[in-house]
């Protein structure tokens, strides 16, 4: 199993039709980390606070947001969550809106997840893989694509 | 010091700098720590909406729109370095 695949705990992925706003999207992405045992509830608030403080910088590529808080804000174990939004959602980013994929990240410290981030960059840098993610119809397909 | 975006940018910048045959040290920092660690930096790569937070630093600030686009990184880094 790749590092990328093993960083998604059970119940760490979701597909939704549409959402009200970016806060809701980040909240769900955080809850996916929480219910898969990667973070404590307070980490979710930290993820939302980061965007409120610094703006939509988390939209790191067209259609893709990377939401995270700080290691000291309640990370139990390094891991990822993935939220697919069928109806793309505006986050307020000038170039990269609207967002269809929200990757939630929990990092236990500043260094130990670097290799995982390398695999994530490889994966999300491959447009054909991103397109496949956007076309899945159920969670098992999502998991297959990431393994 | 950085966790997410900065780490992805660092990894891709290292990849591109290697392709360009430029020897460099690349560090990741978050907005809170960047002022402490960037005093000797030649270039700071960031995302467009954080540019304003970096005003006054001595380095050249280069905004990157698409963190996974190695071509954008390569074009902008070549222009600044070569």
Please describe what this structure looks like.
The complex is a heterodimer of chains A (147) and B (82). Chain A is α/β, with parallel strands linked by helices and 147 residues long. Chain A has one domain: Mannitol-specific EII, Chain A (3-Layer(aba) Sandwich). Helices cover 40% and strands 24% of the residues of chain A. In chain A, helix 2 runs antiparallel to helix 3 (41-54). The radius of gyration of chain A is 14 Å and the shape is globular. The N and C termini of chain A lie close together (7 Å). The N and C termini of chain B lie far apart (28 Å). Chain B has 3 helices and 2 strands, in the order ααββα. Chain B has a two-stranded parallel sheet. Helices cover 38% and strands 10% of the residues of chain B. Chain B has one domain (5-76): Response regulator (Rossmann fold, 3-Layer(aba) Sandwich), CATH 3.40.50.2300. Classes of the chains: A alpha/beta (147), B alpha+beta (82). The interface between A and B is medium-sized, with 28 and 22 residues.
Determine the CATH superfamily of chain A: Mannitol-specific EII, Chain A
Overall geometry of chain B: globular
The total beta strand count of chain A reads: 5
Number of strands of chain B: 2
- Counted by DSSP, the helix tally of chain A is 6
CATH first level of chain B: which class? Alpha Beta
Please name the defining characteristics of this protein.
heterodimer, A: 147 residues, alpha/beta, Mannitol-specific EII, Chain A, five-stranded mixed beta sheet, 6 helices, 24% strand, B: 82 residues, alpha+beta, Rossmann fold, two-stranded parallel sheet, 3 helices, 2 strands, 38% helix, globular
């Amino acid at each position: 199993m790749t590092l990328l695949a093993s960083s998604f705990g059970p119940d760490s992925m979701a597909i939704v039709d549409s959402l009200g706003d970016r806060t809701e999207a980040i909240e769900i992405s955080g809850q996916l980390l929480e219910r898969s045992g990667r973070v404590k509830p307070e980490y979710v608030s930290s993820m939302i606070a980061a965007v409120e403080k610094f703006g939509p910088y988390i939209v790191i590529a067209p259609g893709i947001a990377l939401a995270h808080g700080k290691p000291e804000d309640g990370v139990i174990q390094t891991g990822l969550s993935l939220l697919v939004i069928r109806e793309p959602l505006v986050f307020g980013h000038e170039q990269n809106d609207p967002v269809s994929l929200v990757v939630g990240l929990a990092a236990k410290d500043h260094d130990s997840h670097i290799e995982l981030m390398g695999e994530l960059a490889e994966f999300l840098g491959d447009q054909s893989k991103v397109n496949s993610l956007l076309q899945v119809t159920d969670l098992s397909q999502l998991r297959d694509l990431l393994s | 010091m950085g966790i997410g975006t900065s780490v992805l940018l660092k990894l891709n910048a290292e990849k591109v700098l290697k392709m360009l045959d430029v020897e460099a040290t690349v560090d990741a920092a978050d907005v809170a720590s960047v002022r402490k660690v960037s005093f000797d930096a030649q270039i700071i790569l960031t995302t467009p909406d954080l540019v304003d937070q970096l005003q006054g630093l001595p380095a050249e600030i280069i905004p990157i729109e698409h963190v996974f686009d190695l071509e954008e990184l390569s074009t902008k880094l070549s222009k600044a370095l070569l």
